[in-house]
Amino acid sequence: MLEVLKLGCIRGDRRLFSDLSFSATAGELIELRGPNGSGKTSLLRILCGLSSPAAGQVRWNGKNIRSLAEEYFRDVAYLAHQNAVKDELSALENLRIASGVAGNPLNKAQAQQVLERIGLKDRQHLPARVLSAGQRRRLALTRLLTSKATLWILDEVLTSLDDAAVRLSRDFISDHIKNGGMAIVATHQDLNLSVERMQRIQLFP
């Protein structure tokens, strides 16, 4: 269970949000909405443990995530707005290295199956720098398909994707939630996911 308790965030001399509280349990989706500059990405980074809040705390299964460190990070998969793809490496190399670093090593055949599922089978040996924006985003999404994390934290996950990739992304986020996972998704688009439990959080500038 994830608990956010009276969270506050300040960037520079500006308060982005304060007294923000909510919780998420297994099988639940949270849509995070708000215009640019409202603090969506800052909130996601706090939830991941990459930034510290100005006030309040984030708890995972009853414990402050600041005290859990690696124990918490193993349970979290974070996909930022930037793809974190290595331009000089092929799609296949990017996926295998990223999965290995995350503690989920893949052999070549396993990685190829994932790339085929995401529609990059014919691009697997190309350096990432020659891939289109949509293909690079698809490559970033493969890290979710190989993750064993319970909590997915996603920043504008559908950005740059074509219609087929959007449908695929919606499917595997829905599958993750139906299988007892949780997802917190910052988005400007309606996700239209087939899930039983969903809450929407709106941030204001």
Would you mind describing this structure in some detail?
With 205 residues, the chain is α/β, with parallel strands linked by helices. The chain has 2 domains: 1-75 and 149-205, 3-Layer(aba) Sandwich (Rossmann fold), CATH 3.40.50; 87-146. Helices cover 33% and strands 27% of the residues. The protein has 7 helices and 9 strands. The strands form 2 sheets. A 5-stranded parallel beta sheet has the order 6-7-8-3-9, with helices on both faces. A 4-stranded antiparallel beta sheet has the order 2-1-4-5. Helix 4 (91-101) runs parallel beside helix 6. The longest helix is centred in the last third of the chain and has 16 residues, at 163-178. The radius of gyration is 17 Å and the shape is globular.
